[in-house]
DUF421 domain-containing protein (Gilliamella apicola), 226 residues
Amino acid sequence: MYINLFWSNTKMNYYDFLVIALKLLVVFICIILFLKITGKTSLSQMSSIDFIGNMILGGIAGGIIYNPKLTVFDFLVVLIMWTAIMYTSNYLKKKSQNAKAFIVGNPIILMESGKIKLDAFTSVNLDFSSFAVLLRMKNIFTIHAVDKAILEPNGQLTVVKKGDKDISVLVLENENPNEDGLKSIGKDEDWLKSKLAEQGYANYEGLYCVEYYDERLFVIPSELVN
């Protein structure tokens, strides 16, 4: 028995609908597994590259569902390839600060010491009214109360109000020095090495991350991370 779809001249039988239903089920399960493998199960965890990756994944899924010439096996092959690409990008982000900056981006300082950086606003295509909205979402209703404002790579705004202590800065992550973090506090790698030596660390080996806060370094060794 054929069913004539009213929006097209295509005739489909019950077998065709069964195939589509099975494809939907397989695609649904595969997407859940993909999100678990890449570790991105919520929108708040996603960077711009993750969002683009999920859009492409949706296109791949749509192609397999609506194109009868493509089989579930074709979808699995493409999905494995795309998962490998996303997994590799996530691995590179963890191992290289340069790769992380290229893939995810760096935080952008919009205000510092109460002064507005117009070049930073221009670089991220952010107008002042949108910035004011972001401040109100942080329960800050006047720009004069802001000492420092940072636009994070995920689009969130971090704000330090006047009179508050500055935020912490990661100066080392996964045994790799964070040059941008060091630059933001006016330090260099030689300073980092000397400060770590004072705490008994001859090199970066075995250091998961190092945080700079309130003019002090806080070291988290890899052995303390499960």
About this structure: Strands lie at 2-4, 11-13, 108-112, 115-116, 146-151, 157-161, 169-173, 176-177, 207-213, 216-221. The CA atoms of residues 110 and 116 lie 6 Å apart.
